[in-house]
Amino acid sequence: MPAMNRRTWAVLLVGLAFVAAMLARVPYVNGPWYWQWPWRSIGLLRGALFLGVPLLLLAPLVRGLEGELDARRVRRALALVAAAMFLMTLLGILADPEPGLLRRIVQSPSATSYYSDALDIGKPLPWLANFHRAELELHSSTHPPGPILFYYLWISLFGPDAGALLGAGMIAALAALGVPILFHFAALWTDDARARLLACVLYALLPGLVLFFPCFDAVYPIFSMLLFLLWARSLEGSRPAPLLFGAALFASTLFAYNLLATGAPLLLYTMAVLSRSPAPWRRVATCAATGLATFAVLHTLLWLATGYRPVHSFLHALATQDGLAAGMRRPYLACLGFDLYDFALGGGFLPAVLVGLFLLRRADEVPEAERQARLLTTLGLLGILIVDLTGVLRCETARVWLFLQPWVLVPAALELRKWAAAPREAVLLLQWGIVVVVRCTMGFVYA
Asked: Residue 168's pLDDT is what?
C-alpha cells in the first residue's frame, strides 16, 4: 500500500474512532474525572442540516484549490472562508432546539459573566479606576476589563436585550477575522497560498473555535498570531513591527492574561534566531525595548486618562485564580496528559494527527524550502508543551488554549497540501463531521 494511502487511512481511522467513542459516550472521552464536558443530545440530523450550510460554501473552494490562484481569487477565498466560519458559529448554537439559548448563555453569570458584570457598571471611568478592587463574577474576576467593557458598549448603545445578542454576534464576526490573519501568519511557514488557504479552512472547521460561542476565547488566537507574526517581522528588520507588537501586547492584556503564555513560542523562536548568529543580539534587544516601551506608554496613557491600574489588576487576578485553583482538585500528573488530550479534542483530533505525520516524514522527503516550516512547527509544539508542564493554564484546555491552535493548524495544512485531492477532501469532510458530532453530543458552553 503506498505511503500516501497509509497516511490517509491513519487520519481517517483516528477521526472515525473518535466519532464512534463520542456517539457511544465512552467514559473519559468527554474529559477526566476531575473535569468533564457534559453529554447532551440534540439530534445528529438536525445538527448536520444546520451546519451543512457553511459546508456548502467551503466545498467549491476546497475543490478549486488546484486551479489558477491569483491575488484577487485569494481575497475572495478568504472572504468565503470567513463567512463560512461566521455561519458555522451562529448556526451551531441555533441548531440547539432550546429557545433563547444564546441570550441565556450571554446573560448567565456562570457561563461567561462579562455581560452580567457590565450591567452593574454605573459610570465607566470610576469603575475602571477601581477595577483592581471590583467584586466580579467567576470569569470576570480572572480577566482584564476588556470583555466587560465590550458588553457595556453594546448595552449602552442598544439596551440590555438587544445588546446581549448584538454583542454575541460581534464576537462571532471578530472570531471570523482570524481567517485572513491566519493566512498571513502561515506565511512564516510557507509561501504556498494553497497551503495557507487549507489552514484557513481547518480554522473554520475547528470545534473549539466555532462551538464555544459566545465565549471570547475564539477571538484570542487573533492576538496570539499577531504577537508572534509582528515579533518575527520585527526580527526580520521591519521598522513599524516593534511598535505594532507593543500595541498588540497592550490590547491583549486588556482582554485575557492567558495570552501572555504566547511568550513560550516567542521565546523559543527568539532563541532559534539567536542560535544562528550572534549578530541579531542587538536587533533583539532593540525590538524588545521598543515593543515593551510602546506597551508601557499605552498603559500609562490609559492610567492617566481613566485611573485603570494594570499591575494591580493583574496581581488581583492572579490572587483570585490561585484561590480558585486551591479549591479545585486538579492533580498535576493527570493534567499533564489530559490537558493535551483536551486541547486535541478542541481541535477535533485530526489536525494533531496531521502534524504528527508532517513531522514524521523522512529527511529525504523534506525539501530544503520546508526546513523553516519544520523548525517553526517544532518550536510551536515545544511552546505548547511548556505551557502544559508549567501548569499555568490548567484544565478546560479545549477552550483556554485556543490561542495556541494556529501552531497546529498550519503544519497540519502543509501535510494535507501534499495529498491528492480526494483524500484531502475526505479528511476535511470528516473534520466537518466531527464538528457536527461534538455539537450534538457534548456541551462545550451551557448556561
From this structure: 93
Q: How far apart are CA 444 and CA 214, in angstroms?
A: 11
Asked if 236 contacts 104 with a C-beta cutoff of 8 angstroms, the reply is: no
Residue 2 confidence (pLDDT) above 50:
no
Provide the H-helix boundaries in 190-262.
Answer: 193-204, 207-211, 220-235, 240-252
CA-CA distances (angstroms) from residue 105 to 39, 116, 175, 237, 405? Answer: 17, 11, 18, 45, 24
Task: Give dist(CA 350, CA 415) in Å, integer.
Answer: 11
Give the H/E segment covering residue 305.
helix 281-306
Find out whether 228 and 268 touch, Cβ atoms under 8 Å: no
Dihedral angle sign, alpha carbons of residues 320, 321, 325, 326? negative
Q: Which residue has the cell 445578542?
A: 165
Q: Are 401 and 346 in contact (CB under 8 A)?
A: yes
Q: What is the mean pLDDT of residues 374-390?
A: 93
What is the per-residue pLDDT across 115-130, written as a single tens digit (0 to 9) for each? 999 998 989 999 999 9
Q: What share of the chain is helix, strand, coil (3-state, %, to 5)?
A: 75, 0, 25
Residue 370: Cβ within 10 Å count: 19
Q: What is the pLDDT of residues 300-351, one digit of tens each?
A: 999 999 999 999 999 988 888 877 776 677 888 888 999 999 999 999 999 9
Could you tell me the residue ranges of all domains in the chain? 3-441
d(C-alpha 160, C-alpha 165), whole Å = 9
Region of 284 please: left (phi>0), alpha (psi -120 to 50) or beta: alpha
What is the pTM assigned to this prediction? 0.93
Compute CA 150 distance to the chain's CA centroid, rounded to the nearest angstrom: 19
pLDDT, position 1? 37
C-alpha radius of gyration, the chain, whole number = 22
